[in-house]
Amino acid sequence: MAKCFSFAASRDWWYRYSFTSAGLRQTKPNLVLVHGFGANAMWQYGYLLRHFIQRFNIYVPDLLFFGRSFTTRPERTEAFQAECVMKMMETHGVRKMNLVGVSYGGFVGYNMAVQFPEAMERLVLCCTGVCLEEKDMEQSLFAVSDLEEAASTLMPQTPEKLRELMKLSFVKPVKGVPNYFLTDFIDVSPLNICLCSYSFPNYFSL
């Protein structure tokens, strides 16, 4: 794909434009949508916003090192991610919220509920293994031998690895996607960040 045009960057811009133009209403409850690995917040929730935006004030934050979010502090845990999301909500004047967390975002949401229970009205965790036991990991469809293997799949750096992630993520994954499109997506998305930026959740200590 020519460098003068990026489908992924254009789609990212459209998601952000259409979302931010919707505005907020004081009469509506607040709903925070926290994304997981694989893409930034708008890519994961963009197509779902129309179902919620009439009933809720929607907040779709990019977790640290996703989208344009970053920090110079050394912390990399989901507990620190939770603190950052809460500080962002407080900056927007939001003290009460409903929260939906998907996958890794569910761990962040879980930590927000633990640290700030007074702020949580309702909490929904989707595809989040906060109650996993070791035997569940051994029988998982996503069986990995170590953290590096998990990271290489959850944050793929090549088209081949991205296809592998798509097979794990979708019941009917799209086939025949050309390499240049997948490479473009990796370049625009947070998938091209340094893997050492993350601390994966400890499933057995929550």
UniProtKB/TrEMBL annotation:
InterPro entries: AB_hydrolase_1, AB_hydrolase_fold, Meta-cleavage_hydrolase. Gene3D superfamilies: alpha/beta hydrolase. Pfam families: Abhydrolase_1. Residues 29-132 form the AB hydrolase-1 domain. It comes from the Eukaryota. This is AB hydrolase-1 domain-containing protein.
